[in-house]
Amino acid sequence: MSEREAEGYDISAVEQWVAEGVPDLTPPFKWERLEGGHSNLTYRLQDQSGKLAVIRRPPKGELLPKAHDMSREWELISSLGATGFPVPAAYGFCERKEVTGAWFYVMGHVEGRPLHNAQQTLDWVPEDRRVTLAYSLIDTLADLHVLDPDGIGLGELGKKEGYVARQLKTWYRSWTASIEPARYDDRRAHELHQYFVEHMPEQGMARVVHGDYGFHNCLINEQSTVAAVLDWELATLGDPLADLGYTLNLFGESQADIDTNSEMATSLPGFPPRSVLAARYAERTGRTLEKLDYYRGFNYWKRAVIVHGVYARYMAGQKSTEGVDLDGLLQTIDKSLSSAQQAVDRLEY
What we know:
With 349 residues, the protein is an alpha+beta fold.
């Protein structure tokens, strides 16, 4: 695509809207497509003074009612940014679909890189800065979880109570619906679901939960700290320890732990053990973590369910299997359920 073409955008109409309503930027822009971001149509803009920004809108075509909700993301970065939490600057939100066919927003550009795998960590983060990086990640999550949603204008973001119960209901329904197309079931998925329902900890104060918080959804700067947290599509109000359990599952406790997934961004030497990060979070938030293994187990179980759904779509012919390691998907389901069971066993003994 040339600089003056952008999928999903009427460039002249968007630039006119920016000129009228976003004093931070001076069109016309140079447009550059950015990949990633859950298929939203995302471009980096460079204005006449050289200033960089980012524009996002949903993909073209019909969407599920809550999918790719630009207003939700905008509400989050606007409210969180006002507290000093590291998100891109909120420049402008457009809900006039006649401008370019969909709601969109413009935010500041933040220098940094996400880390999706071990190679990217190796390329970007020296070994002697990986403790700094891990501490920054966990401190940023803790800082999110001490914010009172009502106090920062996010009290209506979602239901405050019953977060894990709703998640269990949604994802168990996904597992059962995927059994037939996947031609695959595992009794542990049912037994673990029952355990999690029957042993659910009482939820404390509702907080903003990101839902997919890790190095893959952060921009890491040259100082090896979190410069910005991105991709708030799954964010809602709920139990912050569910967020913590997900993030801690990305780290190992020992080298043997790490060796089981050598492709993860955290599988390299230099990262602190998971227990150290958990203790740091507890100190920063004042939360007790005696039920942490419940939340870690729940997240392993949820991962198994998600991969099971992906496997089912492949087996049903809804997605091309060319180059796809179907056996690897089954192994991921098995390993995730095993890890969930181990977390439950630690709770019980």
